[in-house]
Design goal:
nine-stranded antiparallel beta sheet, alpha+beta, eight-stranded antiparallel beta sheet
């Protein structure tokens, strides 16, 4: 397997090889593949300055990759990785290849600390959240947990990204700012897309295992209510910005890896000035799909009950083009890459109708989207 990661020639460099160079040399980089596309895009920032993302208006005219945290009030900052070098699938310019090889930064590593919930601990957290929702008359909050896999992660990560390509309808990503953050995943959920044709987003909630679902899937009252909460919130937000034209389609059943979700699509061909785009993003994030409702209280409950800091899990990330167009996705079905471990993040929407054991099983099903890929790789020492 090591031969697949070795730089083979000076006139052709694959995405996996470029990822390996950047991880070894501490170069900020990003990789992504849009849903339904076959093209894998790679970008690298050939300077070691950490760039804070200051909004779409401030970064208009720049090309790169945005990664933002779940909670902007946390110690995790929104970052922008500038595309000093970019290519699709293969880099064939010899001078650019050599420049990437010769760029080396001295950056402290990131070592994991164990913080995972055991089964019984997560069930206790679920019961606490359900009781809180009932007592306060809240409709929904989202609880998450982690699964940490000690391994030779910096060598394993490019291989896992290659394996993720089998998820054709997901947004695949691997972005790293050495010493700050590194995340990789296969997200099923668009946060917000914008180009010259207008805007697109979705409300995604409710989960069933593909292996056990009926054909077509039959959705429980809890799943239908959970997805409707997200749909209503997004609709109420969008209608203040798109007053002339807003198409709504759904809910429909959408497959994402080994699970089904309920999904509603929102489209508008209207254009917005850059300052209103920033305002819209602020209003949407985080949606009830990853937070809850009412939003402010849901975030407080999450902070009080969850064992771990979310960091960039359930934030949004994606490429920004010089034209101002962007494709942003929720950071789900995701793992954080440390120097010596991979940490998966999984969660689910909790309502007063939730059953704790069912919610635990839902997180197991979601985790299998990435765990099944790792199980397919006979490479390195992985404990799980």
């Amino acid at each position: 397997m090591e031969n697949t990661m070795t730089e083979k020639t000076e006139n052709k460099l694959s995405v996996a090889e470029a990822q390996a160079i950047c991880l070894r040399n501490n170069i900020p980089f990003y990789t992504y593949r849009l849903p339904g596309s076959r093209e894998v895009v790679f970008g690298a920032q050939l300077s070691n300055d950490t760039r804070i993302f200051k909004g779409f208006e401030k970064h208009r005219g720049e090309k790169g990759f945005v990664i933002t945290p779940f909670n902007h009030a946390s110690w995790s900052f929104p970052f922008f990785i500038k595309a000093d070098l970019s290519f699709t699938d293969y880099l064939t310019d010899g001078e650019s290849i050599q420049n990437l090889r010769n760029t080396v930064f001295n950056t402290p590593g990131r070592i994991f600390t164990k913080q995972d919930c055991e089964h019984f601990e997560y069930l206790d957290e679920l019961r606490t959240m359900i009781e809180t929702l009932k007592r306060e008359g809240m409709r929904k909050a989202v609880l998450s947990r982690t699964i940490t896999l000690p391994c030779d992660s910096l060598r394993l990560a490019p291989v896992i990204f290659e394996q993720m390509k089998q998820y054709h309808h997901a947004f695949l990503f691997f972005a790293a700012i050495p010493g700050k953050c590194a995340w990789m995943g296969a997200s099923p959920e668009t946060f917000l897309k914008y180009d010259r044709n207008g805007f697109f987003t979705m409300s995604l909630a409710g989960t069933q295992s593909v292996a056990t679902a009926k054909t077509p899937p039959e959705w429980s009252d809890k799943d239908i209510e959970e997805q409707q909460i997200v749909t209503d919130y997004i609709h109420d937000t969008l209608r203040h910005y798109f007053t002339r034209h807003l198409d709504i389609e759904g809910p429909i059943t959408l497959q994402a890896g080994n699970v089904f979700h309920l999904c509603t699509f929102f489209r508008s061909d209207e254009q917005l000035p850059a300052d209103q785009i920033d305002e819209l993003v602020t209003q949407l994030h985080p949606t009830p799909a990853v937070c809850g409702l009412p939003k402010k209280r849901a975030m407080q409950i999450i902070s009080e009950i969850e064992k771990q800091e979310r960091g960039y899990y359930a934030g949004f990330l994606g490429p920004l083009q010089a034209s101002g167009a962007f494709d942003l996705f929720v950071n789900l079905r995701t793992m954080e890459v440390f120097d010596d471990a991979l940490r998966l993040y999984v969660g689910g929407g909790i309502t007063p109708l939730s059953d704790p054991e069912t919610e635990w099983q839902e997180t197991c099903q979601k985790a299998d989207t990435l765990l099944n890929l790792i199980r397919q790789i006979n490479y390195g020492k992985v404990t799980f």
